[in-house]
Amino acid sequence: MPSWIPVDALPRVHGAPLARGRLRARPEDFRVEEQLGFAPDGEGDHLLLRVRKTGANTEWAARRLARVAGVPVSTVGYAGLKDRHAVTLQWFSIPCPRDGIPDWSALEGEGIQVLEAHPHRRKLKRGALTGNRFAILIRDVSPASLAGLDARIDLIHARGVPNYFGEQRFGHDQSNLARAHALFDGTAGRVPRHQSGLWLSAARSQIYNEVLGERVRRDDWDRPVAGDCMQLAGSNSFFPTESIEADLTARCCAMDIHPTGPLWGRGDLPARGSVRGLEEAVAARFPTWCDGLGVFGLVQERRALRVPVADLAADRVADGLTLSFSLPAGSYATTVLRELIDWDSGG
Fold first, then answer.
1. Counting beta carbons within 10 angstroms of the beta carbon of residue 142, is it exposed (0 to 12), middle (13 to 18) or buried (19 or more)?
2. Which domains does the chain have, with CATH numbers?
3. Which of 83, 99, 222, 342 is flagged as catalytic?
4. In 125-245, where does DSSP find H-type helix?
5. What is the pLDDT of residues 206-224, one digit of tens each?
C-alpha cells in the first residue's frame, strides 16, 4: 500500500495558523446554508423542500423524509452532502405525495425541520448548487493570539486558498484510502456501489491533493504556468495553455480563471510541459490507484487548484472567534480555516 500525506500535513500558503481553538464543540458552532442559484419552479410533480438539519447527515435525513412522505428513498434528491456535526440549511426534493403535503412535525425530534415546500418540475440533482455560506464559531481562542488576523484575511481575499479536499473526504483516520486500495488489489470483496464510489473518490482526491501540495511548494498554485489547463471560474470547462501572455496572467489575478490539477482516470492527461511532468511524478507514487481508477470507469477530469473566498469576515466574541464566508460548490470550509487557525475537534 502506498504512503500518503494527510490533509493536516499539506503545505499552507499564508503562513502558520495564528491561534488554536475548538471546532464543532456543538452542532450549532458550524452552520452551513446551501445556495441553489435558482428558484423553485412553482409547479410540477416534485416538491422542493428547504430543510434545517441539526446533528443529522444528508443520507440519514433523506431516508427520514422518504419515510414520512411514503416514497422510495431512491426518489429523494439533494444537491450535496453535508456533515452531521453541524446545523445545515439544505434543499431536498421528493415526488409529490398522493395524499398531499405530509405532516413533517414528527421529524423535529430527530433534528429535521422542513421550513418550506414548493412545487418543482424535476428531481434535485447532485451538484445543482452554486455554493455554500458558512458561519463557524471557534471556541476558546485567546484574543491576544489573533494579532495579524486582519492582514491574513486581506491575503485570503486577494489570493484565495488552495482548493484541497477536506479531511471528511477520506473518512475516519483516512480509512477510505485503505479501503480504496483494497478495491484496487482485489481484497475488498463485494462492496455496494455507493460505498465503493466514496472510496474511489477518496483515492482520486488524495492524488489531486498531493499534486496541489507540490504546486503550493513551488508557489505557482495560483498563477498560470506553460502547459497548465486553466478553468473558467464557475465552470467545469478548461483550456490548455502553451505560453503565458499578460492577459492570461491578468485574468488569473482577477479570479476569472484558475490553474487546475488532475482528477485521475483513464484517458490522456491534458496538461503539458513541466505541469504534466509534476502530475505524472505524483501519480507515480500511486500506480495501483491510477490504474484502478481507470479500470473502475473513471475518466480524466480537472479541478481548480485555487478557491476564491467571498465575504470573509471575523468577529471576536466572548466564546472565541466567529468566521463567516462563502465558497463555491465542491470546496471545503476547513481549507479556509487552516489558513487562519488550528483546532481540536469536538467538545
1. exposed
2. 38-120 (3.30.2350.20), 161-307 (3.30.2340.10)
3. 83
4. 149-159, 175-185, 193-218
5. 999 999 999 999 999 999 9
